[in-house]
Amino acid sequence: MKIKYSLQIAFNGLRGNKRRATLTILGIVIGITAIILMMSIGQGAQNMILSQIQGMGSTTINVEPGREPSGPSAFGEMFTDSLKDREIEALKNKSNAPHIARISPTAFTTVSVTKENETLRSMILGSSDLLTEIFDIETAKGIMFTDDEVRQKATVAVIGSTVAEKLFGNANPIGEKIKLKNKNFRVIGVLAPKGTVSIFNIDEIVLIPSSTMLEYLLGVNYYHAIMVQADDVANVDKTVQDIKATLRDLHDITDPEKDDFHVTTQAGAAESVKVITGILTAFLVAVAAISLVVGGIGIMNIMLVSVAERTREIGLRKSLGATSSDILYQFLTESIILTAIGGIVGIILGAVLSFLAALVLTKAIGSHWAFNFPVLAAILGLGVSAFVGLVFGIYPASQAAKKSPIEALRYE
């Protein structure tokens, strides 16, 4: 009964000061909204990246030059020349890596793609038809180039749907010529619309044979990566060890710490993504949580002002028999109610903004960004907001409870 009475008195007190109550709630609303939004976006980013990684297949292994980057200073090592044709041949040797089913060297660059008077900048990806299997893409028109064309350094190209539309409009591009870095390439295929896979927007790329890429566009004799497909998921770990052993033997490396290459699997990449996005999300949530502390301080200040303004009310209630604990409960309840309302409004607003953010990001990046409502964050946010109200409401409530009824009634 006492709790019900305290709630009734608290609500009546808040209704009498609606403007002040609204301003008090605002700080909590902003804090909870920011936390919900950050956690939703962080989870959405993690899910999207993981779906792209998993879409490459569980048997896919990537071999990249240089040591695995451990910070910005190591980023340049990714572009060393440790992966060449001899590494490809060594890995194709079944005695070295018996569980490798297929292998494809890869290189990439960005150049202008020209068709008569039309020009656009596009990502050029040099690889083999294995890429279409790993990325699960297919041609909507024409065909993909063959291994023979890779060996012959053929000047053929398969273009993304957006590239085809911008350069050729409604015309059929099959058999037409496009120019890459002053070299003519014959279009033999157009990829079906796919969106973003891994780090590439399939609709905006141009695929050419990897050997052709090195010869005519890059003018180098090394690759940016080697994509390997194991013959079975169960053999992925064994294949990784075989790759490392083969390359270390080829490069005369005895100390693994001195590897001039690094090998990643989809499972390893997924785990790394989870760790990185988890840390980033936690950091952003911690920053957003600061606004909750600021909101709590605001509640304490406003409650102190409220206590001063309602001194006569406190004196009158005490003179009618209210105890110090009754006054304490009243003001403490008001503080908790304010923060709880702020928490609820913040959760609703955070959910709405998270949904809108998902729609905007989906349109902006050209790939589906799933809306994620962090239920745990909502429950935690509501609990934290009530806790903030309790902590920062104790001092103003105790000050109100200490007032003498006689002095309070004399207060002007």
The averaged pLDDT comes out at 78
| Quaternary status | single chain
Question: Structural class per helix/strand content?
Answer: alpha+beta
The geometry reads as: elongated
State the end-to-end distance. 33 Å
Main sheet specs: 6 strands, mixed, barrel
Q: Cα-atom Rg, whole angstroms?
A: 32 Å
3D structure, described in words:
This protein is α+β, with helices and mostly antiparallel strands. The chain has 2 domains: 2-52 and 271-410, no CATH class; 81-259, no CATH class. It contains 13 helices and 12 strands. It has helices spanning 2-15, 18-54, 85-92, 130-134, 147-151, 161-168, 210-218, 236-250, 266-309, 311-319, 324-365, 375-401, 405-410, and strands at 60-65, 100-115, 118-127, 139-142, 156-159, 177-180, 183-191, 196-197, 200-201, 205-209, 225-230, 261-265. The strands form 2 sheets. A 6-stranded mixed barrel has the order 2-3-10-5-7-6. The protein is elongated and about 100 Å long.
Give the key terms.
single chain, 412 residues, alpha+beta, six-stranded mixed β-barrel, 13 helices
